[in-house]
Amino acid sequence: MRGVVPTYDLYGENHPKRPDFWLHWETIASRSQLHNWEIKTHRHDTFFQILYFRGGTGDAVFGTQSHPICPPVMITVPPKCEHGFRFSRDMDGIVMTMLASRFGSSGRRICDAGTQPRLISLTSGHADTIFLVQSIERLSAELISGGTFHDDLVESYLRTIVLLAVRMTAPQHPNTNDGTGDRLKLLQTLVNQHFRNHHPAEFYAAHLGLSATHLNRIVKTATGQSTNGLLVGRLVDQAKRDLVFTSASIKQIAYDLGFADPAYFTRFFTKETGRTPRQYRTEQSARMVV
């Protein structure tokens, strides 16, 4: 019988209060060498992890399954996923632990609790693979050196890394000549142009020459969520950005996002995130220090 799997914010550390960071990073060696190069099975409630390995060998354990680590490789670990690692003493790499909620709907495929961990080989010469490696290395350098616009650059690099990982691990569909890709690109453009108007799914379906049911099926296959879920996610993502990166009042943000009633915006945001706009702004502001 398996024992209880411990839950940590950072492996081996128990905090009586919620941690005051949204991102923590360290080398693989700095923590694993304290534990004889073995990180026993554990999980994180709200944190998402990216591990990047340049060299060395090891095994990643997810639940009861073991997978060899063959650098160069990137591993993503979603919240609540049971995981552990065994490393060789020459393992070279970094691990980044961050709030999964930071990435909104764009990173949902790999960041949300309940999604699967991913091992992404970085040996390919594909342009996305090269760009992903460059982005990780640039992020690593920025985390070490800092400088002007440090926080903004860290967030930008991380978002690029997550989006590339989502694209590289997205399921490939055999029919590439049915116009689905073009329709999804046009849908994204239309959503970015009109999401503040709160149009229903039928509005976008009509512009794409589809029924709402057909559009919903396409979106569900590509993103794992419904068309309405995509539209709600876009509004929530923008609200989060405005709350964190602008000094606008909550009332002004509500109006800018097309809500005629700020109180309704507060109810909408609370339903989707579990926090009021004011609570979210306060929490994220406290975690802005990397």
Walk me through this protein's architecture.
This protein has 290 residues and is an alpha+beta fold. It folds into 2 domains: 23-124, Regulatory protein AraC (Jelly Rolls, Sandwich), CATH 2.60.120; 180-286, Arc Repressor Mutant, subunit A (Orthogonal Bundle), CATH 1.10.10.60. Helix content is 45%, strand content 18%. It contains 11 helices and 9 strands. The chain has helices spanning 28-32, 108-111, 127-145, 150-169, 180-194, 201-208, 212-223, 227-245, 250-256, 262-273, 277-286; strands at 23-27, 38-42, 47-55, 58-62, 65-69, 73-77, 83-87, 92-99, 118-121. The strands form 2 sheets. The chain has a 5-stranded antiparallel beta sheet with strand order 1-8-3-6-9. Strands 2-7-4-5 form a 4-stranded antiparallel beta sheet, with no helix packed on it. Helix 3 (127-145) packs antiparallel against helix 4 and helix 8 crosses helix 11. The radius of gyration is 20 Å and the shape is globular. The model is unreliable at 16-20 and 173-177 (pLDDT under 50).
